From TrEMBL:
<dbReference type="InterPro" id="IPR007995">
    <property type="entry name" value="DUF742"/>
</dbReference>
<protein>
    <submittedName>
        <fullName>DUF742 domain-containing protein</fullName>
    </submittedName>
</protein>
<dbReference type="Pfam" id="PF05331">
    <property type="entry name" value="DUF742"/>
</dbReference>
Amino acid sequence: MSVPQDGPLLDDAAGRLIRPYTVSNGRTRPTAVLDLLSLIMATGTEPQTHLGPEHSVALGLCGGPTSVAEIAAHLRLPAVVTKVLVSDLVDCGAVTAHPPAFHDMPTDRSLLEAVLDGLRRQL
């Protein structure tokens, strides 16, 4: 069984080795109010509490503003589990969370085109 370097709890053949909700200790509700588009950024403060490997990976992704959705994609975890992990990081002061800013309309055509352009660049 080989475990890839990019994910401590993933196996090439088997996939995820533990259930996603085990990562959040069965918690399904974050303590911080987070949206999928909330921007998360590391504060530079080291967490004083013991955090799991997913917390560390999530924190490493937040050197610049990173959305909760992006963190979930990188961790390969459901959004609700990712929100719990990120809220743990917010609670210990390791990251800050900023809600998405919608200027006029959240479905503004220019915003949707920017998202589509970004997705095309990823392919």
